[in-house]
Every structure is written in structure tokens, then in C-alpha cells.
């Protein structure tokens, strides 16, 4: 009877291990699904899940060799399943797609655009999505109306006069404008930010990031300085999602989920046999 109860306990252990595996592969599929849904999102950085094993149950400890006796033995342990270790954001460079639109800006290298939700400072966000527009007053804004910030002051905006003849943006972020009188002016220089740990940034939706305790403080600079990349006008940085990689990972996750369900059904069948030992 004691051995039968031990067998039941062992089967329950394998069932709970299978449940933990199913839960983790479900999270992996969630991340893969989000990556695929954002395959055409400008500036999107893909996610990645990693797993780690849970604490192992000690069956027998290790022992050292005995003088003039037997040799040492290794520990005997049974693992209790897996757990989610990390969900990483992979900040690798996405490809730059030509659009030939003056306010489409791609960053070739490191760095993030600095954006503000207020005319007087407000909250600062960071983004790799470079599709910008002009509002009614000539300020450069993103798709949600956040102001693109200038480098001259932490919260200053960049304004192009509505009656200007033309404008261009250089690799170093300098905005050059031909005003209504035909004179060349420069209303500002686009500001970038860099971080000691970009993977520590928190996604806020709408292609935006915010600083966290582990990302390090935002360091303000201009393009091509302090290790940041150059601006490439007329291009957009596309998502760094590789569809072939995502589909491969999807197959692995699907088969992993399937294998863990098989562990549960097999353990259930053995439990049924144990219960039916006495009829």
C-alpha cells in the first residue's frame, strides 16, 4: 500500500510538471502571436521568451569517496517542471524602407526619438518609429500628436513655419528651412536619447517606450554623437520580426505544448491502472 501511494505521488508530480510546461508554451505562443501581428509595424522590436527549470526534489544527496572504500556518488534529483524566466525585447536594427517622404526618418544605428505629450514639457516618451507629421502650427509631431523634441532645451519643440517654401533634415538631425523670403534658417536639431540598458525600457503601446529603474536614465544627445546612429530622411525603420524564425518557433511551441499534454494523459492512464489494482 505504501508503494502504491508513492506511485500516485510520483504520477501527480509528472502531471504538475506537464501543466507548468503547457503554461509556459502558451505564453511563448502569445509572444510569437504578438510578433507576427506587428510584422509591418514601423520601429517595432520583437519579443522572446526563455524558460528555466524549477527547484528539484532531492532523492539522495551527493557523497564523496571513502578512503580505502567505495568512490563518490552523484546527487539524485527529480525536477518539478519549468517556469518562465524572461520575456525579452530584442532591440536589433530593423531594415530601412525607402518612402521618399521628407518627414519619414529612420535611425541607422542606436538611439531613440524623444517625444513629449505637452507644450510645456510633460511626460517624455521614446520611440524608434520615425513617421512624423506637421500640425496646424507647423510643429513636428508623431501619429498621435506627440511633439518631437529639439536638442537645445530638454522640452523644446521644433516648428517649421507654415509659409516656408521647403525644408530638409540632415543626418545629424539639423532641420534646414527655406522661409517665405527665400532665406535659409534652422529652427532646431532633432534630439535623440540613448540608454545604458535599452532592453530595460518598458513598452507603452503606440510604438512608445518609457524609462524604468533598470534601463538607466535617458541620455540626451544628437544623431551621430555619443554612439547614436545617423538620421536617414525619406526612410522608415521597419519591424525586426523575421517571419521564418517566428514560424519555426511556433512549430516548436506547438509541439512542446502537445508533448506536455501527452505527459498529463499518460500520467492519468497510469493513475487509472493504480486505482484499478483492487477491483
UniProtKB/TrEMBL annotation:
Q: State the UniProt keywords alphabetically.
A: Bacterial flagellum, Cell projection, Cilium, Flagellum
Tell me which residues make up the Flagellar basal-body/hook protein C-terminal domain: 233-277
| Gene Ontology biological-process entries | bacterial-type flagellum-dependent swarming motility
Start and end residues of each Flagellar basal body rod protein N-terminal domain:
15-45
Q: What is its main location?
A: other
* Flagellar hook protein FlgE/F/G-like D1 domain boundaries: 107-177
A single GO CC term, please? bacterial-type flagellum hook
Q: Where in the cell is it found?
A: Bacterial flagellum basal body
Function field: A flexible structure which links the flagellar filament to the drive apparatus in the basal body.
What is stated as this protein's family in its record? Belongs to the flagella basal body rod proteins family.
Q: Which domain of life is it from?
A: Bacteria
Q: Which NCBIfam families match?
A: FlgEFG_subfam, PRK12636.1
Q: Could you identify this protein by its name?
A: Flagellar hook protein FlgE
This chain is encoded by the gene named flgG
Q: Which InterPro entries match?
A: Flag_bb_rod_N (IPR001444), Flagellar_FlgE/F/G (IPR020013), Flg_bb/hook_C_dom (IPR010930), FlgE/F/G-like (IPR037925), LlgE_F_G-like_D1 (IPR053967)
| Cited Pfam families | Flg_bb_rod, Flg_bbr_C, LlgE_F_G_D1
Amino acid at each position: 500500500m505504501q508503494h502504491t501511494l508513492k506511485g500516485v505521488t510520483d504520477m501527480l508530480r509528472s502531471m504538475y510538471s506537464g501543466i507548468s510546461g503547457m503554461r509556459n508554451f502558451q505564453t511563448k505562443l502569445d509572444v510569437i502571436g504578438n510578433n507576427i501581428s506587428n510584422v509591418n509595424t514601423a520601429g517595432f522590436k520583437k519579443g522572446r521568451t526563455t524558460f528555466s527549470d524549477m527547484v528539484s526534489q532531492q532523492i539522495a544527496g551527493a557523497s564523496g569517496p571513502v578512503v580505502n572504500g567505495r568512490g563518490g556518488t552523484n546527487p539524485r534529483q527529480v525536477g518539478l517542471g519549468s517556469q518562465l524566466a524572461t520575456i525579452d525585447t530584442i532591440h536589433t536594427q530593423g531594415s530601412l524602407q525607402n518612402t521618399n517622404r521628407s518627414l519619414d526618418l529612420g535611425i541607422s544605428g542606436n538611439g531613440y526619438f524623444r517625444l513629449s505629450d505637452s507644450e510645456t514639457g510633460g511626460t517624455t516618451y521614446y520611440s524608434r518609429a520615425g513617421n512624423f507629421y506637421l500640425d496646424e502650427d507647423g510643429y513636428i509631431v508623431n501619429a498621435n500628436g506627440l511633439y518631437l523634441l529639439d536638442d537645445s532645451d530638454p522640452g523644446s519643440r521644433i516648428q517649421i513655419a507654415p509659409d516656408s517654401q521647403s525644408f530638409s533634415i540632415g543626418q545629424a538631425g539639423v532641420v534646414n528651412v527655406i522661409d517665405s523670403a527665400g532665406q535659409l534658417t534652422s529652427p532646431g536639431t532633432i534630439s535623440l536619447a540613448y540608454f545604458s540598458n535599452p532592453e530595460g525600457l518598458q513598452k507603452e503601446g503606440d510604438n512608445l517606450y518609457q524609462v524604468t529603474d533598470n534601463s538607466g536614465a535617458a541620455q540626451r544627445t544628437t544623431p551621430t554623437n555619443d554612439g547614436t546612429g545617423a538620421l536617414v530622411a525619406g526612410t522608415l525603420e521597419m519591424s525586426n520580426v523575421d517571419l521564418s524564425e517566428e514560424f519555426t518557433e511556433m512549430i516548436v511551441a506547438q509541439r512542446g505544448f502537445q508533448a506536455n499534454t501527452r505527459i498529463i494523459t499518460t500520467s492519468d492512464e497510469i493513475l487509472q491502472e493504480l486505482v484499478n489494482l483492487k477491483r
